[in-house]
Amino acid sequence: LYKIEKLVTLLNESFKTMVIPTEKICIDESVVPFLGRLIFRQYLKNKRHRYGIKIFKLCAEGGYCVTYKIYSGKEQDQRATNLSAKVVLELVEPYLDFGRTVYTDN
């Protein structure tokens, strides 16, 4: 993942400048199909593409991706909060205290 870290950072910064999220924002996970060899490749039995790279996205009301985070496996810092709560707080942090409504699933 370190090989594309600059590209991921550049894309996230570019996405943020293109649109300012309205009152409603959504956080969802997606799977990019990938059958190659990766340490952090995920197996998700309930998804159409069972093997792939898991991505958490923060989207604006029109479906535009404002920012995203690639899941690269367990982190060393495992505290009381679970993965979902940690990802939601990390993605939403720049948009807190602006009266926005955050929608998530499971």
Automatic annotation (TrEMBL):
The molecule here is called PiggyBac transposable element-derived protein domain-containing protein
Where in the sequence is the signal peptide annotated?
Answer: none
Q: What species is this protein from?
A: Graphocephala atropunctata
Domain PiggyBac transposable element-derived protein span(s) in chain numbering: 1-106
Tell me the domain of life.
Eukaryota
